[in-house]
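Bumping with the actual sequence this time:
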Amino acid sequence: MFKNKMNDTIYKTLKNEIMLLDLQPGTAISETELAERFGVSRTPIRQVLLKLSEEGLVDVIPQKGTFISLIDMKYIDDITYMRIELESALIKKVMDNITQTQLNSLLLNLSKQKIVIDYADNIKNAIIEFNSLDNEFHRMIFEIADRLTIWNIYTKLSPHYMRFRLLDIFDKNVMNQLYNEHKDLIQLIINKEEQGIKPLLEKHLKGGFSRINQLQYKYKDYFKNIYKGEF
């Protein structure tokens, strides 16, 4: 993060708007307009945009300008492959070490997911809250396995995946499916059914790929490349 408090505020605000798709992929960014918006010179804006560029959230194109990065499905495919392999191995470790208190924390998170699906006052709030609980559910698994550093590294590599995930769950039916998969995952942990972990994670983490044609048709301007089953 930035030592300068104002720079840090600008960075967090813009990153949040990008990750929540308030700033849509492909949108042009004006340094002058951002400077006016935040009441600063263009220098801190450039510093913030450089940081966001390093994180893959904006693209600085010489002679053209700065744009919110398009969602890269090849990158998402690679990240998802890594996540499935890592998390499958970690859950097998969790099976042998999870305490009742830790299991209760996962179950509490699961119950909150269901409440959001059933009672959120509007779809955007439901998406934001469910996505946060979804991330926290998986973060807890990494924490129980004593591999929280890996989770932190993964989240830094995942801006494309996180934005794609938000597009994908813009439907309560999808949220319900993810909720049920979380519930099934907990049951596998309780029953110590190792053989079921990887197939379930593949279904869970790559579920959006089965709906990709619809998403890329609806949001065609958001994507850098087209996913057709493999790269």
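The tokens above came from a reply further down the thread. Strands lie at 28-29, 58-61, 65-68.
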